[in-house]
Amino acid sequence: FTFNAKGNVYDSPSLSAYSNGVFQTPQLFAFAKGAGVFAEAGPEAIMPLTRAPDGSLGVRAVGAGGGQSVSSAPQVYITIDGNGNTSTQTSPGLEQFGADVGKYVDQRYKQNIMRDIRPGGDIWNAMKGTR
Fold this sequence. Notes:
This is Phage tail tape measure protein. With about 130 residues, the chain is of the alpha+beta class. It folds into 2 domains: about 45 residues, no CATH class; about 60 residues, no CATH class. Helix content is about 25%, strand content about 25%. It is built from 3 helices and 9 strands. Strand 6 and strand 7 form a beta hairpin. Helix 2 crosses helix 3.
């Protein structure tokens, strides 16, 4: 098995079946002479890559207005205030995307804080004066 918690790129018909989806639970796919697992460390998207005219490789966002390519990446502004409340702002038409990204960031923020305040965590150690 190949685990992909830090991301990876594959050319696999088995994996292509998952294209354009976001998965919350571990998924198994076949490739070459082995198998891979994705979404094993949390939500993960399987997105097709497109090479731009400048040679760059990445995911291309397509607007809802008839298949025209978007020339710049969507921007999502996420604010976490002093009380831990999260809010997001994004371009019109991408509100659901912004909300989903905001929820994901909020979950990761809370997981990191919980890890850091446990005994031995960074915040715990700083409060105890140890490293």
